Each structure stands twice: as C-alpha cells, then as structure tokens.
Fold each of these.
Amino acid sequence: MTSLSVVVPAFNERENIAPLVHEIVRHLRGRIAFEVVCVDDRSDDGTRDVLARLTGEVPELRVFAHQRRSGQSAAIRTGVKQAQSAWIATLDGDGQNDPADILRLLEARDRADPRTRLFAGWRVDRQDSAGKRWASRWANGIRRRLLHDATPDTGCGIKLFERAAFLDLPYFDHMHRYLPALMQRAGWATASIPVAHRPRRWGRSKYGNLGRALVGLRDLFGVSWLISRSHVTAVSEIRGGGAG
C-alpha cells in the first residue's frame, strides 16, 4: 500500500527534473512506501520526453501531462487527484526544495495533533535574488495582515497535507499559495516547518516579481472575501431507533 504520494509539477525543467526524481527516490526508498507523481504542464523544452524515459528507470514514477498549459495550481491538483496515497508531499520541479525535508515533514506530522492536516515548508535561508526575496517578504507581510494565517512562508513548494482535506478546498488558479489560510478556513490546523532552500542550478524562474505581485493582490482579496463569508459547522451522526 502506498503511504505517501510525492507530487511534482513541472514546466520547462528539462535539466532539473531527472536529478530531482532520482534524489526523491534516494531519500525515500526503503523508508516508506511511496510513489512520485510528476505532472508536466505542457512544457516545450523536452521535459516531457525526459519524464517518459524516467518511467522506464524509476518504478515508483508515474507521469501525467496537461494537453494545454494550465499553471502550477492546476498541475498540483492533477497530481493530487491521480495520487494513490492518503497523504501528499509536494515539491517544485526546479530542484530548489530539498527532498530530504520530506522526512522532516513526516516526522512533524507524526508528532502533531491529528487536526493538523497541512505542514508547510518555511524557507529560513532563501537562495533567491535580492529582488525576489524582497517581493516575497512584502507579499507575505500583506497576506498575514489580511488573512491572519500565522504562516511565515506560503510560497515554499515543499508541503505535506492530507489528500482528502486538499480536495475539499475550493479550487482556483494560484490557490497553492494560500493553502494554510484555506485549510484553516476548513477547520483544520496547520504548521510551518523550517526547511532548506537551494539555488536553482539550471533554467530560470517562470515568474516575474511585478506580474506575480499584481496577480497575488487580486487573489489575496478574493481569499480574504472567501474567508469572511465562511464558517465551519460541526456535524454529528445520530444512531439508534426512531421515535416509538
């Protein structure tokens, strides 16, 4: 039985994806029953061909491909829907997340209260450009003030969460950046776990600071509205005979 599904969204990561998959396998094989689910978001640099070859080398690997480019949140959701485990770990396809930290998140889960259904990576030593770090701090500060999600870093790609809880969340583009607030809205607890962050070895980031900031502000106000219009209702099952 698969105990963990590692979902990796990928877009134009031809040089990064094979080393990442092999690294995931090296850290997890023999420690936990797992699968790796890679979702190619209509890459045009040969990423899909690399993944196809890897399926013959890595028995734990399953690959799915979008027929049109749909974005990172859609790729994550595709992977989660195809996953065979009740728990999901996610990693960015660029290799900046360290797969060794999956084990750290699993250890945190095993120690946590059962109501904690999301363990979010927290990049305490960012290995990005100064401009990207500044934009991230600015966005995180605004998000925390509006959403009160008590999460220092929602942009980190490495996360661990329960599959059923994730699929119960409202879906929208860029939702992966608001998972702590959305999980809390659904009545679950979340935790932030310090993790490593590595420099990008090949390729370049797919996001510009300005474009991400403008889209992020629109999404942020939308999530804030969604939370303000929500409440969690406790449900209990009634058993026994009917009225006599």
Amino acid sequence: MKHRIALPAAAAAAVLTAAACAPGTGAEDDGRISVAMLQPPRSGLSPHSDDAFKLSRWSTAETLITLDDVGDPMPGLAVEWESTDPTTWVFTLRDGVSFHDRTELTASAAANALNRASAATPPPRILDGVDMEAEGDDDAGTVTVTTAEEDPLVPQRLSSPQLSILAESAYSGDTVDPVGTGTGPFELVEADGAASARLDRFDGYWGEPAAATGIDVTYVPDGTARAAALRTGEADIVEAIPVSQAGLLDEDQITEVPMPRTNTLYLNTEDGPFADPGLRAAAREAVDAGALVDGVYEGRADLAEGLLGPALPWSAQRPGRDEPTGAGDPDGARITLATFTDRAELPEVATVLEQQLTDAGFEVEQEVREYANIEEDALAGEFDAFILSRATVLDSGDPAAYMTSDFSCEGSFNISQLCDEGVDELLEAAERTPSGEERRAAILEAEAAVLATDAVVPLLHERVIQGDAPEVEGSAKDPRERLLVTAETRIR
C-alpha cells in the first residue's frame, strides 16, 4: 500500500491561485520565466543558510569559484588562484564586475563577504569546523584566504553558494539582504517572504547578458500543486516533481537528473542486535533494493552499488569489495526501524523493508515521525535501523566531508555509531589528499572500508525530476542543485 500525504483541495487551489496571480507569470509578461519552487525561504534568503541555493539557482548571487562536472574548481568571480603555503590561498579577481547596487567588485568587498560568513552565527555549513579569514588587496585585485589548519579544499569551499559574494550594502549588523546586492545576470528586485520573489535582467552583467528579461518565483510546497502548475501552463519551470506526479505529465516535459543523494539504511553498530556483525550482514542480505526502485520509486531511481552514485561518474571506478561477513541467524531478534515523513517516499520504503527484514527472521517495529522530531533520537542511537535520504557531496562538491561526518568515530552525523580504526585512518588520508584523481581514489578506498563494516546498506540513488514547459530552452539540469535558470535560459 502506498502512503501519500495529499494537500487538501482548498489548499492546493490556493497555491495554484497564488502561482497564477504572481506578477509576470506565464505568458503575461513576454520574455520572463515563471518558476515554481519546492520550499520557501527559511532564513530571509540569507546566503549564510540553505537559502543560498535559491540565490544561485536564480543566477543572482555568484561565488569566487565554480565546480566542473567532477567537482574540480573552475573560475567564477576569481580567475586564478594558488596556494602559497599549506594554510594560505591567494585568489585573483575578475576585472569589470559590478554589483547590482552599481558598486564595483573590489578585493576588499569580496573579503568582507567572506569574513561576514565566517563570523555568522550559526556559521554556514560549509565552514563548520573551519577557521577562515580573508584579506583583500585592492591594488593587486587579490583576496588572500588563510585557514587555521591545512585545508586542500579551500577552492571547493569557496564555490559553495553559502559563500556568495554580495556588495557591502547587503550587510547590516547580523542581517544580510541579497536584494539588489549580487553580481549575477539577474538582479533580485523583490522578495515577498514565503510567497514569491521577482528578478529582472541585470544589464550591467560582466558576462553574456541574460536571454530572459526576468524570473518570477512562486513557492509551492505541495508536489501535486507544483505538477499541476506545469500541466496548466501557470509555471514554465518546476523543481522537484514527486514520483507520484511524474507519470501524469508528458515525458517531454520532465527530465530526471541523477542526484548525489543516497537512500541508505543505517544500522546501529554500538547497541542492540546490530552490534553483532553477523546480524548486520543478515540485514544486508535481506534487503532487496530493486523492489524499492521498481515499486516505491516506479523505476525513477538508480540501484545503489555503494554510497556514491551516478551523479559522481568517477565513483564507478571503485575497487572490488572485500569478502563480506557471513550472515548470522536473526532468530526473531527485535529491532526498531525508523524514518521520517518529510520525504514522501520514505514511509513506504520503511514498510517494504519491514516486510523484507521480517521475512529474514527479524521482528520489526516501525517508528515514523517528522524529521525535526526524530533527528535527535537518530543521532543518539535510539533506533536499531534508520532510513535516511542523504546528500553525499554536501556543499564543497566533495564526498569526503559527508563520509567523515557519517562514519568516523568523531563524526557529527554518525547515526550508525560506527567507530572503526581502519575506517578512520582511510577517511583521514582522504581528507588530507589534494583534490583531483588521487583524492577521488582515496575516497573510494574509504568507501570500501565503510561498506565492509555493514554499518550501512546503500539502497538507491535518487533522481530529481525537473519539469520544463515545451517553450523553455536552456534551463540547467544540475545534480548539485546549484543552478536552474541561467543566462542562457529563455522562453521560445
């Protein structure tokens, strides 16, 4: 039986009405693009929060560095960089860049933005545990970034939308206002809280001017309403269409993008039945992830071969896995299997896994809550097994931080309560390795060590389903969800 949470008809209608009435949506305003987004801002569009990804998806705020397809650093507002010693990096800024408030991008302005992020409370997630300071040299056009400890990922960190470079006028006390203060091809001109946002083409953009005249954003949390907005022509681009709605749309209107996000079964290695490696192996053998892909996700997901999936093409080069631990006999072992409701498919995943584990000889009790009400217990090891949809590259585009967070002895998100000396050594080696092929190989070695513990059973890799009206050209299909409407996006 499928578990779906539907928005009441009146609420869905209200959402669609809001989308229809938003200024400039649909065909009313020639050359403008209407976008229906999943979540409203949670922190007033502060770049120091996850709202930063909205600013980057609208191409209004930019960073010193961008990333290529494999996660290596590329020029953004900085055109070149070098490490002058293990804790110091120097970035040379691009010439001729203006902020939307018509002030010039200077080294001191860029350093100010980075230092404001470093001093924010709480700090941006990308700077969690990182002590970073920036200093600008306006004469040389360079920004020097210093870290307290050696950090080979500084360029990748500076690609995070949470370290976007805004004009000095954006900052007042502890608040940050991105309206009219970015550098991208679109200027944010109006932000109406949790309702909508409006952006206009910025004619002073340093690169190729935007093809569209502007963007009109409406926040539509309900997936059924978002899909309906695309179907009825109220929205040109719709993000995160639920699997349940994808089949109701024309195939030429949707694109499935492999995500660096893995649905994973975490097993508690410290307490309870899964402290026994043999029972962890029994759980691994009991799981049929193909049934989840074909049933719950209706074929719109990728079967997991490891923690990392097709959104990171280099992960296919992983070494062979060591001989797995032999499975023990569950013999009616009682386990608590938990997950959360915020992602509509996960309760159904839990139901399928409960049956599979029961068939293998476990006695299973489910616990399902909203994520905000279950995270603390999951991190405290209150459950024997926990199903999580987990981003695997976080903000730097590099999976080493995720693996350290989830699987090291001191990891801050270690739901499996795993503490393995060999795993820690490989994770530390990967963290120290400079970016590039050598680092990627080290990450895959660490992944193999984690999988060998059976502390985690990767299930599947999600795909995000993006909807585009037939008239839309050039929208970004970005696995990292940093880009959506770019300077090239247009309405035919």
Amino acid sequence: MTIAIRPDTADVRARREAALERINGGPSRQKRSGAPKRAKPSRRVVKTSKPAEREVLGPTPGIYYWIGLTVAAFVMLGLVMVLSATSAREVASSETPYDTFMRQSMWAAIGLVGLVIALKVPYHRWRALVIPLAVIAAGLMMLPFVPGVGVTVNDANSWVRFGSFGFQPSEFLKLAAIAFLADHFTRHEHDLHLPRHGLIPLGLVTFGCAGVSFMQGDLGAAIVLTAVSLCVALIAGVPFRHIGAITAVGAMGAMIAVMSSPWRFNRLTAFRDIEGNKEHLAFQSWQGLLSIANGGWTGSGIGGSRSKLGYLPYAHSDFIFAVIADELGFIGSVAVIGGFGLIVWFGVQAALAAPDRFGMLLAGGIACWLGVQAIVNIGGVAGVIPVTGLTLPFFSAGGTSLSVSMVAAGLLLNVARRAITAPRPRRAAKRAGRAHASTRTGRPTRSTARV
C-alpha cells in the first residue's frame, strides 16, 4: 500500500495560505514566530491494489455544521410559514387547509433526497455531467414557449405544466449556469484574459440566460442569472474590463427594454411612491409594508397575521417575508436576514478553503445566488427596490425553488466538507510560546514532550 499526494497539492497549499492570510488579516502568528510547523496532511488519496481510488476525508470543519444547521432551520421554518400563510385561505375554498402545505412538503422531501445525493457524491465527479446538464436546462427553458405546455403565472410565461405537475425551468438554469461557468473557468484558468476564453463565453451565458428569462417576462430570474454569472467570473479572475463591458451592455439593454413599454416602466418605478400608487401599481407593496408594520418587535405569533386573509396577494410565495415579519416581528425578521448572511459568509469561507478551483467557483457561485435572490425578494417586499416576483429561497411556496435550493445547499455542503482547514492563530501562538519557553529553560513542556 502506497500513499500518493494529489498532483496539485503544492498549488492548493500556496492558495490556501494566501486565503488564510486574507481571512486572518495578515500572516499567521505561527509563521511570524518562527516556530517549527508539524506536517498535517489534510487530504490524501490512498491507492490500493484495486484500480479505484478511495477518498479519505480529514476532520469536519465548523463551516459545514453552520451551513447545514441554517439550511435545516430555514426549510422547517419555511414549511411552518407556508402552512400559516395558506391554511386560512384554503379553509374557505377546499375541504382541507393543508393542500399547499402537503405539496410543499412533498417537494421538500424530493429536495432532501437531492441534497443527500449532492452531498454524498464528491463534487468533482459532477464535472463530467456539467455540459449535458447545461444543455438539458437550456432545452427546458424553451418549453414555456410551446403552446399547451407553457403556463402564464403572475404575467410571466415562465412555467411548464403537464397535467397536475408543473415546474419553473429557470430554477434549474441558475444552478446549471453556475456549474457550467465554474467548469469552463477552471479548464481555462490561465487564459481568462483572452476574449475567446473569458469575455465571449461569459457574454453568451449571461445574455443567453437573462435574455430568455426576460422574454418569458421573468425579470427576477434575469437579474439573478446576470448577477450570478458576473459573480462567478469575478471570483474566477476574469479581467474587470470584460466584466464591466458586459455589465454596461446588459444595463443598457435592460434600460431600453423597460423604457420601450410604458406599463413595464410604471410598474418598476411605482416603488418610488408606494403610498401614491397603493390603489393599483403598488397595492401589493403597500399591503406588504402594512404587514411588516403590524409585526412590531415580537410579532403577532404563528398564525396570528391578518394580512394573509385576502389582504396581501401572494402571501405564501413572493411576499412570504411580510408574513414572517408580521408573525415573528422585528426579531424574527432580523434572524431570517441574519441566517441568509450566515449562509453567504460561510459559503465564502468554504470557497476560500476549497481544495481545488472548481470547488471554489462552485461554492462562491451558490453563495452569491442565494444571497442575491434573498436581497431582491426582501428588498421588494420592504419597498426598497421594485417587486420582481422572485421567490425567497427555502421559504416561498414553490416546489421547484425549494428543491433546487436544497440541491444547491447540498453542493455547498459538499465543498465545505472537503475544505482545507488550518490551526487557529491563537492555538498556533500558544504552541510557539511554549516551544520558545522550553528552549530558554531547557525543560520540556507537554507539547514538546509528545514530539
């Protein structure tokens, strides 16, 4: 039996040290103190007589548990809020108040299966399926244009329905675009300054995904796809002039599209005067602000919101954050916003400590996706930005959004589980101090005696 170190270990180790220096605010104390370092290999590949290689994982990092606990809490709280937002309305229209809740629970179970599969299979094995999955996701985006298959919901022709089964293809496209760009930028990491490897592929993916979503009337998906694509490119190291050029062209195209339609222009600018447009264009935003104000500090309690009794449209989907603020109050709202902040923060930490470039881009793209989508949804509910009809990840009633978000969380956990960890600076400084004291007194300390 022989032990072989990965061929890219030296490059990964150098990048890890640079990332740790950025996180800790400079070189580690252990390096400044000149204390000897112990070799602690955190990732090995053990070769046996069989042709297959078995991955040996090191200690589980703390970011893995933080992400997992936050996602689990969000999914369970989301199911409770969906039941609270829909039960009263469904009592008057059907025999049971649990229709939407049971459907959301079914999608949560499907998402849990996808999360476990995405977590258990090493993420680098998914690279072989990136291009086929991207092609499938692009093909699914064409289905809403097929007569009899595409369904218009909330003025957006972005849904597909086969009988009683329906889904939204743009949710799959978000994850497929992140994985495709991560794979492409990894394969051409040294040639991203060339337009054929950096600017052109990024422009095709960004404008293609956002353009199709905009043609379907799904402005929220177009915004998220654009932001996520540019975020992955920024992390990968695409030159700023290329990212700036794509951003400028995209902003100009979006402005022309908005100005060409008076209805679309008035709809997007209504948030600037919500009270003046509360009777028509900003009715939903006004009701959302009333729900947030009714919550106070501690909220009205689970099930205590009155705005969901027909006053607030789409209380269970696009505006579920207003119900959260009403029933959980300011404290609950801050907790939900802070939870998304934790996912983004620890997702960035997982990207910085990823063992390879593909894992870094995949984790960074997923963290950016969840963060941007939460900002757009909560900002629209709070009246800070225009309402785009975007769901709140893990909370809004929408099976496709919930299940795909859980799969993305599984991939994020996959990268976090394989993160390369390092000793804490304080512990390293203590070890260095004990070693220095032992050299002065000549007495072996507990740490040096073990060595």
